[in-house]
Amino acid sequence: MIRVLLADDQTLVRAAFAMLIGSDPEMEVVGEAATGLEAVALARSARADLVVMDIRMPELDGIEATRRIAADEDLAGVKVLVLTTYDTDDHILDALRAGASGFLVKDTRPAELLAAIRTVAAGDSLLSPGPTARLIARVLSAPSAPAGPGPEALGMLSERECQVLALVARGLNNTGIAESLGLSPLTAKTHVSRIMGKLGARDRAQLVIAAYESGLVVPAGGGAAGN
To answer: Could you write out the three-class secondary structure of 17-60?
Structure first.
């Protein structure tokens, strides 16, 4: 059973999501929060497996709430899936840096929401990886984009690891990476884990950020090194 906490300041949005999630026999809604502060408190008290987190909320926004959950050792197993309006919400990059495991577009289809919850709860970090990568690329290509680790960070990685990282940034899962490089899925998973350790990344979402910030993957239609 996947225990889900809903955090959104819109009552109707929470109600709709709660009804949908409650219809799945493998999921249950264990709490609803209207503010970021409530989300952090309920994540602790309700022992949720996953928080569906809106970014724009009163008292404490979803980014800071995500950061507090990710930084709490007692909540190490709690995943955060942020909500975004996609075309207008550049805060998604901050949310991923704060420790979110991915994002959902608010007008996502019901089946996609349930699939996304299963994916993140199972430990896979990115949902709709193509849009995730494009959004990160757009934000990082803006003049005000924050400085990243730089190309020198790639010096810690082997040539094969650079190839794997580039494929992660394109949104491929371990099976897709294995097929692209002629590896077994277990070997691909091992490479991803080692890359996370070398770059200090929490999950695959942060690997995507690192790939763009280091220049391994070029925003706005550019190529990727190692492909």
So the answer is: HHHHHHCCCCEEEEEEECCHHHHHHHHHHCCCCEEEEECCCCCC
